[in-house]
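HUMAN: Ready with one sample?

ASSISTANT:
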Amino acid sequence: MTETDTPNASEILANELAIEQAHVDKVYDHLETATASARNVEAESRAKFQTDRADWMREEDGTALFERDAFAFQAAKRLAILDAEHEGLVFGRLDFNPAETRYVGRIGVRDDDYEPLVIDWRAPAAEPFYRATAADPMGVVRRRVLRCRDDKVTGIEDDLLDDTTQTDLVVIGEGALMASLKRARGPRMRDIVATIQAEQDEAIRAPHQGVTIISGGPGTGKTVVALHRAAFLLYTYRKRLEQGGVLVVGPTDLFMRYIERVLPGLGEDSVTLKSVGDLATDVLGFGSQRVDEGDAALVKGSLRMVQALRRAVQEPLVAEKTRLRVSVKGEILTLDAAELTTIRRDILASHKANRARRAVEKALLDALWRKLPTDIAALLDLPREIFDEIVTSQASYVMFLNAWWPRLNPEMVLARLADPAFLHKVAHDVLSDAERQALSDSLQHARGFVPDSEHPRPTWSVSDIALLDELAAMIGPPPVEVEADPTIFLADGSDVSELVTLADRLTTRHEVDPDDDLAVTHAHVLVDETQDITPMQWRMLRRRGPQASWTLVGDTAQSSYPNDDETRRALRDLIGRGASRYFKLSTNYRSPAEVMELAGEVITAVYPDADLPRAVRHTGVAPRLLTSSPERLGESLARALGQLGAEVEGTIAVITPAGRYHSVTDMVAGLPLPVGVGERVSVLTALQSKGLEYDAALVVSPDEIVEQTPGGIRVLYVALTRPTWRLATIDITDGRPGAWRESLESPLSDSA
């Protein structure tokens, strides 16, 4: 029985809503009880041990402190989960044959008899909610999705999965998936935990070991699947993964802000989210969101940079013809440039530069000792210990050593490559003339210092961050500065009420492992938009998960890094011989069929192997292909945005080439748009749009997007597939269609 089959459909819907509301009310009542209990535990644990530290701590007091902290931690953790899950807690119901009902939600809730009122969506018992189909109903007769606002049930969508079973179950609506697809997009990603489909769920629940690769074209839900997989893995393998940590990596800060509420909404907050540009903040202390222009980004992403960087580290900072001269009892001992080069090469072959100072001093002293004739050493009765003291006490030796082997930092080394002469010396046989020019120009631009409150630094790019991280791994952490005479007692006039003991001072020293590159490692690493990760960035990622399991999500047709061979090599190095599995998402839930038809023609013209997903929706409205003269671009934008604003209720993206971003942003800000439209418009570059979705998209000057990004047509393909309802493009020409439209079957245009 469907809603339209009965004359009193509204009464049936109201009755079904009342039934579901009664169960949801029961769940929230028990949730409030659990929350109050957790608050009581937290309060009791905090009161368990209080002291003014006026006397010595007894052993039993230490036990009480441990118990207090353990209970407080667990209670606070439970409270955080309970407080985060009040909105939309219950979202699904399963009715089985034989008769059984299961409710599915964000966390599990049980009644006083420990019977489940709601099953956690990650639990095995909830799998049929996502995997059951009409072909394989898994015993499910009806699957129901509840739409809730806070604790109120506002709507119901049903799927009848087994129509062979005699049942009087009411079936309401057009299906949960299609209903959710019609909702307008907001500025942040919503989780789709209630509407995950079978092929997505299979990827979400795959084992954690080794490498899991999830591919799919635009709109197939790759990002959502990846985030739900992170939540599922933490739920299923919590002991292993929560302790080691889960790292989620995305392309930009804009993208990370877009997805940041998904995992907490799924009941998980023990996850680290970082954009690629911020990935090395653990080592460098800073990140970047500035994107290089095409040629510079390509050369910086290449694996050939490893050899160039290694040679840069090996080159001393002092002049090439440097020599070391010391005087010992009237004898002049000299190490020339060739001898010093040999010593430097041998030391760096087995040591990181910043951890090799002792080895360097020993090698220099050994070489100088060998320079001293044996007969003179005997005549002077000069033992080796005295010889070393004489040499190391000389100013010429100390000055040479500090200049020849200084403490390095990654920025210092990378900045040297801005010098064309030095770059030619270390990379003439590694990079072409054009590549060296692009790299040098880019680094010279980065060295144009920008003011910072206290510490000005070059404006490094996202690509530079991977190079700096590589250098940090090569040179190692700087040596620990040891305080020569630590003060044991408090200074006069100190208002500190506790005694700092010598034991305290000793235990707070941090010993740095010479082999430690300081990168924070994780138990599982999830990388979204992997097609844009350069080979150098893959090396940076591997240092964050040397023993990790991995989830890699992407689509090669949307890649902005065109060197596929180097990328495949980097992935082979990552996967190795470990366990791996591959999932392909084939259904486009986001883009209308009309948009995908246009985008498909564009991408297959240059990338025939593109994985084009099947779009499940039709809007009946073809994309509008507009043209405008440069002088009238503002008017064209105003008309196009006004029309899009009238056609969609949600967000609108204006996607521009990087070279026009600032001018278009200023132009849009000054447009006389209809009331309510302006605040829904966002301006972003094609690269910034990766992974995002909007109700409508207006792509400005597609030809310039192709020209200004390394991925060319593939980046334009990304821009064209962002909208969920309407797409329009504007070619900035003299009225002729842009070159990107030559591959279209009907490349006619309208004037904007």
